[in-house]
Design a protein that fits this description.
single chain; elongated; alpha/beta; about 425 residues
């Protein structure tokens, strides 16, 4: 057993060999999910001027302090402020009001906004539900039925972010709110670590693409789609290359073609001890092939290939083995390339629910597929139930699972009620930019 690598040692060896990708300046939407590599300061106050948070009337608070439904205060309407359509506003004098729309600039002299629902809208009746059409003829007025305190319904200049302050620190993961802030600050591009480019190569003469009729001894390539989708869900720009037959020269040629567009390469299959293990034969010398103390996924390979020394992770060919290997080794590698400080998924503890005790090989860390239920309010632990068996070809069971159940190397059984470590697999899309 001394020649077996542990899961943790194999991952640590991969991460030691990786360096985050060099920063580049990207348009905002292309930077979604990426890690910021520059401090962004606020160039000008946000918002840049005092503006209204309501449709209503800009007033002097003192003028409406005594307003009630029975004794409304009547103010002369001297103009209108609309968002984006104001050239010059009059200075508000005592006894005056200005129609104002949400987001529109506040006129000098005003210190409060009365929502239109607290007024008659200039129509001469009771409170209205919405702003009526403008009537700005000489002598126009509005009756205010409720007082507004100084500062009411006003967004002050710089209340969101003051000029010169730090808006976003380097290391921030950019999601929709952060991109919105950058846009509000006027930034069209931002410096980030880009999404890693991943090429997925499935090997095996028995593989044919989905949609192609199967011949004798053939199966459809599922790993290529599983791994490409998993890489995309983790935030990478992933490409599924054509499957490669069990011929070393063809694999070397395929890699040569793909390395120019790859920051990382994933292969599946051909890493065990069979007579046609093409990955081992083609890449021996540049990739180190190992046996890990884990199940599934015992055979693994890792190395830096080509003139650019592109990281290559060689995963086993069984569908469950390749996916579990992706979660444990490839996903952390992708996050390391993208500059994330936390590369592994968070683990949780959960109580095992099962009909019969689970078994695990001695000295191996086993990963079973499971369905995880988070703890109820007030509870310390959630629960996890196995889905399907332990065999590494059970893809249908994997499709129903949302977690991996980890049984440690020292354990050979796990009884119902046991407290185990669980790796929730939830998320997709923007998951890469999350802390998960």
């Amino acid at each position: 057993m001394s020649d077996l690598w542990s899961v943790d040692d194999h991952l640590a060896d991969i991460l030691r060999a990786l360096r985050p990708l060099d920063p580049i300046a990207l348009p905002l939407l292309d930077a979604d999910g990426c890690v910021l590599t520059e401090d962004v300061t606020v160039p000008a106050a946000l918002p840049p001027f005092d503006n209204s948070s309501m449709d209503g009337y800009a007033v002097r608070a003192a003028d409406v302090a005594a307003a009630t439904g029975e004794r409304p205060v009547r103010l002369a309407v001297v103009g209108e402020s609309a968002a984006g359509g104001v050239d010059e506003l009059p200075v508000l004098r005592p006894g005056q009001a200005l129609r104002i729309m949400t987001g529109a600039p506040l006129p000098a002299g005003a210190d409060a906004v009365v929502p239109v629902e607290w007024t008659d809208g200039g129509l001469g009746g009771g409170p209205v539900a919405a702003m009526p059409a403008a009537d700005l003829r000489e002598g126009a007025s509005v009756r205010v039925h409720r007082p507004a305190a100084p500062g009411a319904h006003i967004r002050r200049r710089g209340s969101d972010a003051a000029a010169g302050t730090l808006a976003l620190a380097a290391g921030t993961v950019l999601g929709p709110p952060q991109l919105g802030l950058l846009a509000a600050l006027g930034r069209a591009r931002v410096e980030v670590r880009p999404r890693p480019r991943v090429v997925v190569l499935s090997t095996g003469s028995e593989l044919v693409p989905p949609g192609t009729p199967l011949g004798p001894g053939q199966i459809h390539d599922s790993n290529g789609f599983t791994l490409t989708a998993a890489a995309r869900a983790a935030g990478a720009v992933a490409y599924r290359a054509a499957t490669v037959a069990d011929e070393p020269e063809r694999l070397r040629a395929a890699l040569e073609d793909q390395l120019s567009r790859a920051d990382l390469v994933i292969t599946s299959g051909g890493v065990s001890v069979g007579a046609y293990d093409v990955v081992k034969e083609a890449l021996r010398g540049s990739v180190e092939f190992r046996r890990l103390a884990m199940q599934p996924g015992k055979p693994q390979g890792f190395g830096l290939v080509g003139r650019q020394r592109v990281p290559l992770l060689a995963l086993p060919g069984n569908p469950v083995s390749s996916y579990v290997s992706f979660e444990l080794f490839v996903r952390p590698a992708l996050r390391a390339l993208a500059g994330h400080p936390q590369v592994a998924r968070p683990r949780v503890r959960a109580r095992l629910v099962c009909d019969a005790p689970l078994t695990s090989p001695a000295g191996r860390r086993q990963y079973l597929r499971g369905a995880y239920t988070p703890p109820a309010p007030g509870e310390r632990l959630g629960t996890v139930r196995p889905v399907g068996g332990a065999s590494s070809h059970l893809l249908a069971a994997l499709a129903r699972a949302d977690a991996l159940i980890e049984i440690p190397e020292a354990a050979t059984t796990a009884e119902a009620g046991a407290e185990l470590t669980v790796v929730p697999l939830g998320g997709g899309g923007q998951e890469y930019g999350s802390s998960s």
